[in-house]
Specification:
alpha+beta, four-stranded antiparallel β-sheet, about 280 residues, 11 helices, three-stranded antiparallel β-sheet, 2 domains
């Protein structure tokens, strides 16, 4: 495995070569790289894979104010901090079922030491998120994490595993809501196809569909394992306070436009699951 800082350096060289090294120009930069490293790395699938895994992605995560994500001596208490399992420290009606879903995920990953993240700033700082986390004394962290260090999961599979029934994740719900206003019949077909796909999955099948090898727009979420490398932490709220209050939310995912046919439900041919089959 290529160390993080070496991968970042190679990726920086590659990015610079695409725009040209000043007066040498792009052609001169590529010639220099070929003479230095041999065959141009981006023509080699293995080098391309390394570059992709070293790209960083900005993520956000809500954690209790006493948590230090870079401290390996701290043990995360995922179940204790989950609003799905307990409210005010007491299991609610569906808490035990949710607890079992978490335990199945822990077993499949081989650890319970990971954090649930957002890859969309607007969603991380939405009213829904702040109302859920701030009363529980949580604060928002910002991370720059190499893609090779992120474990992606399927939101639809996680919801079905946790609640026992399929439910459109936010990105697909936006598509459904847009369709419902313009073409209600197409919207209902879209929702029915989604529910039919997930309803027949047993617990083991849901776990098989749970984890992805890449981000899928509108319906995947990121997990990052604990402890987090201190170099990946860009904003530590314990040191700088509620910095997100003065930030502008990023735009959300796009929704479906016109057309006569309902869009195809993406779950059956998910690109994030290609390497997992």
């Amino acid at each position: 495995m290529v160390p993080y800082f070496i991968g970042q350096g190679l990726y920086a060289i590659y990015q610079k070569s695409r725009s040209g090294f000043g007066r040498y120009g792009k052609a001169g930069a590529v010639s220099w790289l070929e003479s230095t490293f041999g065959r141009w790395p981006m023509q080699n699938a293995r080098w391309h894979h390394i570059f992709e895994r070293c790209k960083v992605m900005k993520l956000w995560t809500w954690q209790h104010r006493e948590v230090n994500l870079a401290d390996a001596s701290q043990t995360l208490k995922n179940l204790d901090n989950s609003s799905y399992v307990a409210t005010n420290g007491q299991p609610h009606e569906a808490g035990m079922k949710h607890k079992r879903a978490y335990e199945l995920v822990f077993e499949r990953l081989g650890t319970d030491q990971f954090i649930w993240c957002y890859d969309d700033y607007g969603e991380a700082t939405s009213t829904l998120s702040t109302k859920e986390y701030e009363p529980r004394e949580c604060c928002l962290w910002e991370l720059d994490v190499p893609q090779g260090q992120i474990q992606w999961y399927c939101m639809a599979a996680w919801t079905a595993l946790r609640e026992g029934m399929p439910k459109l994740p936010k990105g697909l719900w936006d598509i459904y809501a847009s369709l419902k206003y313009l073409r209600p019949q197409a919207a209902e077909r879209f929702k029915e196809e989604f529910e039919d796909f997930w309803r027949v999955k047993e617990t083991g099948g849901l776990l098989d569909y749970m984890f992805l090898d890449r981000r899928v727009d509108t319906c995947s979420g990121p997990l990052v394992f604990h402890p987090v490398d201190a170099r990946f932490i860009t904003k530590d709220p314990r040191q700088i306070g509620t910095w997100w209050d003065c930030q502008q939310p990023k735009s959300g995912h796009g929704v479906c436009g016109g057309g006569e046919e309902a869009p195809q439900v993406p779950c059956g041919s998910c690109p994030g699951r290609d390497a997992c089959r």
